[in-house]
Amino acid sequence: MARPVMTLRDVCADMRARGAGMTQKTVSNAIADGTFPFGKVLSVTNGRRHILIFRKDYEAWADENLGPIM
To answer: Which of 51, 54, 63, 68 has the lowest CB atom count within 10 Å?
Structure first.
């Protein structure tokens, strides 16, 4: 069974599989500025973002916006 949360690495791997490759920095920036609604910045420590991504939210967004895995 899949974990209920994802890392930036997990999201990037899934995006690549769906044909929309992005870097972790790009996804992090898009979550921070609200472009990607599936994640939330919890805190910033020493310039490093701590991001929470729920798998259910990401998968719903990806299915609607990116389509199926190729």
So the answer is: 68
Model pLDDT for residues 4-25, shown as the tens digit of each residue:
999 999 999 999 999 998 999 9
Q: Rg of the chain over CA atoms, in angstroms?
A: 12
DSSP 2: -
Please give the Cα distance from 17 to 9 (Å, whole number).
12
CA atoms within 13 A on the CB side of 10: 15
The pLDDT tens digits for 49-63 are: 999 999 999 999 999
Q: Give CA–CA dist 55/59, Å, rounded.
A: 6
Could you tell me which residues are beta bridge partners of residue 40?
Answer: 52
